[in-house]
Automatic annotation (TrEMBL):
Keyword Zinc: no
Family membership: Belongs to the D-isomer specific 2-hydroxyacid dehydrogenase family.
Gene Ontology MF term list: phosphoglycerate dehydrogenase activity
Pfam families registered for this protein in UniProt: 2-Hacid_dh, 2-Hacid_dh_C, ACT, PGDH_inter
CDD domains assigned to the protein according to its UniProt record, in alphabetical order: ACT_3PGDH-xct, PGDH_4
Listed pathway(s): Amino-acid biosynthesis; L-serine biosynthesis; L-serine from 3-phospho-D-glycerate: step 1/3
Entries under PANTHER family matching the protein: D-ISOMER SPECIFIC 2-HYDROXYACID DEHYDROGENASE FAMILY PROTEIN (AFU_ORTHOLOGUE AFUA_6G10090) (PTHR42789:SF1)
Catalytic activity: (2R)-3-phosphoglycerate + NAD(+) = 3-phosphooxypyruvate + NADH + H(+); (R)-2-hydroxyglutarate + NAD(+) = 2-oxoglutarate + NADH + H(+)
Keywords, sorted A to Z: Amino-acid biosynthesis, NAD, Oxidoreductase, Serine biosynthesis
Lineage, uppermost ranks: Bacteria, Bacillati, Bacillota, Bacilli, Bacillales
Protein known as: D-3-phosphoglycerate dehydrogenase
Length: 531
């Protein structure tokens, strides 16, 4: 039974997803502090949060069973991603479910700002009928600048077009062609601040975007402009904005997010007549909360059941088209790495992944975490390594990874050859997915074999001479070990040879030692695929 802890308020309709899986138990415990979470997290396989729970390295360290942290929403700034990666915990989010909702909230803020709706409401319900103070401005024919042309920024731009606004945009990762298609004029930040009547920010908060709008930008800003932040507190410098408001450079601002949330009761934004605020409500609609909860619950179930999943934040994304081609090779890559690590002496310095056939024509980088997981599992233990932290663990050990491709014209079979260079030797194995039989080890070094990548095998290097196969069979038989199959390869008659013995039962270290004493046997390695 997998145990899932839900530590923030999450839509019940979304959580219903979990009832479809009959091996999942959900516990809802909201409002816990760090110490309270640390005390219970060791029982859980998955943690599901919104933005309130701060998932710290200490919580992850205590979460010895934690495989996945799901964020029902986009921003993962409340989760320490670096720590999650080093503890091998997958972090997933739900990037699409609240896009429309947040773009609508941005628009609600922009219209409220243009027409002073919160201020007018406050006065009206206080019994004052003030029709003079609240002269607003139209959006029609005004210039809106969108900083960050991602999911939400583009939806905001679409809506602004319908309101007759001219759209300027800034996003270093957005091309001229995309901008043209969306009817957005790309510009520099300086051009934007000089021309825009409204600025809305839709970037993540990063070192590059922190205080993207600050004193320097306010100094050259168009007088009387208005600005909106429904993305993350800190993108617009709060102190510099207050000065710009007092100097009349900025006519009004609408903020859904703050540098510190919730803001202190005496935060100047809460009292300023020209600032309107909401308490991080951008994603708060029934529809968005249901969407993000469903998305993230589905992915958590996939991860717990070792099925393919999407939206991992601490793993490089694999586009769907590539995923369908490369996914069948994930297990093969891992098992080859596992086999090779057990055949090799010394500390691993380099892993080379060499692909042929159609694999040589596609991006094979997604195989790397699987190969490294296989290689490192033998050295670090299955509990310590997974596809999230294997690349990180390899880097910590100065293991370099090289990708190579053998072109289609030279080789037509889809094969993966993994080489390991260690401090003392270099070895390699090749695997393939064979029609009707599936994943197979097809070469050990230069020797062709055909071995399923499961159970236990003995890899015996020996000299090609009469009697060796018989002696091996006899010794194993004397120790009650049944041979399921045996394959032998050699480079030339009487030369070096390799014997692969598939055994039904684990051998002891003593049996391996005894095998090495047989004359002509150079080396014996047990390869366990079920580690
Ligand atoms: N208020 C809320 O409740 C709420 C709800 C959802 C999302 N958000 C926040 O809104 C923001 C946008 O979300 P999204 O889903 O559109 O994200 P997204 O990843 O789709 O878009 C972000 C865009 O910012 C751009 N960007 C990155 N660095 C930049 C820089 N230095 N200058 C300009 N552009 C830069 C990226 O290229 C990308 O196009 C995020 O911060 C997210 O956390 C807030
Ligand atoms: O959970 C929330 O309401 C915050 C949503 C939003 O900030 C996000 O990043 O998705």
């Amino acid at each position: 039974m997998f145990k899932i802890l839900v530590s923030d308020p999450i839509s019940d309709n979304g959580l219903q997803q979990f009832s479809a899986a009959n091996d999942v138990e959900v516990t809802k415990l909201t409002g816990l502090n760090e110490e309270e979470l640390i005390a219970i997290i060791h029982e859980y396989d998955a943690l599901l949060v919104r933005s309130q729970t701060k998932v710290t390295p200490r919580i992850m360290e205590a979460g010895v069973r934690l495989k996945v942290i799901g964020r029902a929403g986009v921003g993962v700034d409340n989760i320490d991603l670096e720590a999650a990666t080093s503890y091998g915990i997958i972090v997933i989010n739900a990037p699409d479910g609240n896009t429309i909702t947040t773009s609508e909230h941005t628009f609600a803020m922009m219209l409220s700002l243009a027409r002073n709706i919160p201020q007018a409401y406050r006065k009206t319900i206080a019994g004052l009928w003030d029709r003079k103070t609240f002269i607003g401005v139209e959006l029609n024919n005004k210039t809106l600048a969108v900083l960050g042309l991602g999911r939400i920024g583009l939806e905001v731009a679409k809506r602004a077009t319908a309101f007759g606004m001219k759209i300027m945009g800034y996003d270093p990762y957005f091309s001229e062609e995309q901008a043209k298609a969306a009817g957005i004029q790309l510009a520099t930040i300086d051009e934007i601040v000089q021309q825009a009547d409204f600025i809305t920010v839709h970037t993540p908060l990063t070192n590059d975007t922190r205080h993207l709008i600050s004193e320097q930008q306010f100094a050259i800003m168009k007088k009387g402009m208005r600005m909106i932040n429904c993305a993350r507190g800190g993108i617009i410098d709060e102190q510099a904005l207050l000065v710009a408001l007092d100097e009349g450079i900025v006519a009004g601002a609408a903020f859904d997010v703050f540098e510190h949330e919730p803001p202190e009761a005496d935060h100047p934004f809460l009292k300023h007549p020209n600032i309107i605020v909401t308490p991080h409500l951008g994603a708060s609609t029934l529809e968005a909360q249901e969407n993000v909860a469903i998305d993230v619950a589905e992915q958590i179930i996939h991860i717990l059941h070792n099925q393919p999943f999407k939206n991992a934040v601490n793993m490089p994304p694999v586009p769907n088209e590539l995923l369908s081609k490369i996914q069948p090779y994930f297990t093969l890559s891992e098992q080859l790495g596992k086999a090779l690590a057990q055949m090799t002496d010394g500390a691993v310095e380099e892993v080379i992944i060499d692909c042929s056939g159609e694999l040589a024509t596609i991006n094979i980088t997604p195989l790397i975490p699987y190969v490294l997981k296989g290689v490192l599992t033998h050295h670090l233990g299955a509990n310590q390594v997974n596809i999230v932290n294997s690349v990180h663990l390899a880097k910590l050990r100065d293991i370099t990874v090289t990708e190579r491709k053998t072109l289609l014209t030279e080789k037509i079979t889809n094969e993966i050859t993994i080489h390991i260079k260690t401090t003392v030797e270099e070895r390699w194995v090749t695997g393939s997915i064979l029609p009707s039989v599936g994943e197979r080890l097809v070469k050990i070094g230069p020797y062709p074999v055909e071995i399923p990548l499961e159970g236990d095998i003995l890899n015996i290097s020996h000299q090609d001479k009469p009697g060796i196969i018989g002696s091996v069979g006899m010794l194993l038989g004397d120790n009650g070990i049944n041979i399921a199959s045996m394959q032998v390869g050699r480079n030339e008659v009487g030369g070096s040879a390799v014997m692969i013995v598939k055994i039904d039962k684990k051998v002891t270290a003593q049996v391996i030692k005894d095998l090495t004493t047989i004359e002509g046997i150079k080396r014996v390695r047990l390869i366990s695929f079920d580690q």
